[in-house]
């Protein structure tokens, strides 16, 4: 803002709303000298909606200076490379009664909380780029009674077999992980109150071997009574030498008695035909409760990499398309919707659409298999 604008006789409440609005829209901040919050009622009420610190002591020092501002914080990001203790983190959390999101990066605080600390719920808890994360994970999880969404990204390996004390065993509704070992996921599920409460499990990558498929089967067995939504990106086609349904039989997908939606993603166009067959074969293992199977193909082969000469490619198919078409027609109940989402350049999308319609004519024509598209710009 210009210096002249500070001399205007405006109520303090209006200035707070102006600052709040500009904080919410960086483009407006660069172009506008004065904006009224009344024009943008969806903006945050306070400038200090999100706070980021590299060290816990720095956060404590700031809190001591302006506690009234910190009380409005909703999201707190701690990106620390230096060791810290849970005792100090608890002091930070106590100063933020409205906190709904906590992100911990690099180095996780460790140790037990003070005896007077009262665990509370949180909407989202994230651990990112914590390759050395070990037992201290449960020191942090124990600070919360419930976690709506627990997310891991590159969050270390398995913890020790020793069962350590926790202030609280939080209820976890959703757990998502990327580039994180399945041993870590299994540890968290078994040592918290996720069993009997978790509704959504999302594993982006990390299912690329038969050993990992068996690990997923163990996790699904643990969550079979409450899991409603399952998101996977199994990159197992290159190892598949038998029928496409072997993946889902090994994973024992049918045991998920409450499952309502299954989202499957592929991020590589290598072996895309086999991947499509394997994903569609999930229909055979679908529990009666399943209502949607959504297949995302995020990467489509360019025209010059596409082979379609009597269905001969570098990787042999594990089943005929005729058998797959018949299976889709006979095994998909009326309540189950199966969708393939193609995402790529225009030419690649058309190639795949034509291929699917030609190989699975019955399922496509009768509406048992839906094909939707997102065309990316360029060619």
Largest sheet: spatial strand order: 1-2-3-4-5-6-7-8-9-10-11-12
Instruction: Report the C-alpha radius of gyration, rounded.
Output: 25 Å
Mean pLDDT across every amino acid position:
84
**Overall 3D geometry?**
globular
Query: Roughly what fraction of the amino acids lie in strands?
Result: 15-25%
In total, the number of domains comes to 2
Helix content: 25-40%
Given helix and strand content, the structural type is: alpha/beta
Encode the helix/strand succession as letters: HHEHHEHEEHEEHEHEHEHHEHEHHE
Say how many strands there are: 12
Straight-line distance between termini: 44 Å
| Oligomeric status | single chain
For the largest beta-sheet, the strand count, sense and barrel status come to:
12 strands, parallel
Topology overview:
Layout: H1 12-24, H2 26-31, E1 50-53, H3 56-65, H4 67-70, E2 75-80, H5 86-94, E3 101-106, E4 120-128, H6 136-141, E5 144-153, E6 171-178, H7 182-191, E7 200-204, H8 210-223, E8 229-232, H9 246-251, E9 261-266, H10 272-280, H11 282-285, E10 292-297, H12 321-331, E11 337-345, H13 346-359, H14 361-365, E12 369-376
Parallel strand pairs: 1-2, 2-3, 3-4, 4-5, 5-6, 6-7, 7-8, 8-9, 9-10, 10-11, 11-12
């Amino acid at each position: 803002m210009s210096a002249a604008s500070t001399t205007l006789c405006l109520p303090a409440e209006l200035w707070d709303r102006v600052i709040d609005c500009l904080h919410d829209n960086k483009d407006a901040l660069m172009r506008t000298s004065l904006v009224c919050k009344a024009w943008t009622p969806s903006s945050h009420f306070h400038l200090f909606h999100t706070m980021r610190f590299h060290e816990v002591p720095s956060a404590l020092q700031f809190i001591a200076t302006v506690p009234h501002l910190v009380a409005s914080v909703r999201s707190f990001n701690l990106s620390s490379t230096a060791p810290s203790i849970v005792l100090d983190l608890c002091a930070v959390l106590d100063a933020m009664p409205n906190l709904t999101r906590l992100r911990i990066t690099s180095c996780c605080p460790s140790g037990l909380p003070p005896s007077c600390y009262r665990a509370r719920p949180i909407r989202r808890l994230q651990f990112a780029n914590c390759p050395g994360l070990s037992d201290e994970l449960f020191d942090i999880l124990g600070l919360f009674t419930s976690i709506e969404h627990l997310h891991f990204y590159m969050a270390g390996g398995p913890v020790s077999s020793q069962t350590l004390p926790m202030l609280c065993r939080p209820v976890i509704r959703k757990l998502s992980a990327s580039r994180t070992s399945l041993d870590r996921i299994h540890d968290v599920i078994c040592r918290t109150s996720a069993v009997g409460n978790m509704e959504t499990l999302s594993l982006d990558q990390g299912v690329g071997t038969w050993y990992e498929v068996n690990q997923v089967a163990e996790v699904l067995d643990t969550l079979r009574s409450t899991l409603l939504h399952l998101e996977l990106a199994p990159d197992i086609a290159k190892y598949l030498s038998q029928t496409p349904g072997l993946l889902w039989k090994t994973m024992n997908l049918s045991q998920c008695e409450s499952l309502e939606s299954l989202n499957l993603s592929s991020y590589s166009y290598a072996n895309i035909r086999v991947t499509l067959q394997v994903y569609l074969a999930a229909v055979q293992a679908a529990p009666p409760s399943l209502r949607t199977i959504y297949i995302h193909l995020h990467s489509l082969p360019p025209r010059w990499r596409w082979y379609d000469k009597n269905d001969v490619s570098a990787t042999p198919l594990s089943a005929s398309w005729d058998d797959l078409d018949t299976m889709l027609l006979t095994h998909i109940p009326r309540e189950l919707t199966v969708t393939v989402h193609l995402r790529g350049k225009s030419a690649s999308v058309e190639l795949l659409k034509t291929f699917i319609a030609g190989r699975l004519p019955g399922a496509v024509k009768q509406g048992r298999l839906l094909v939707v598209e997102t065309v990316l710009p360029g060619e």
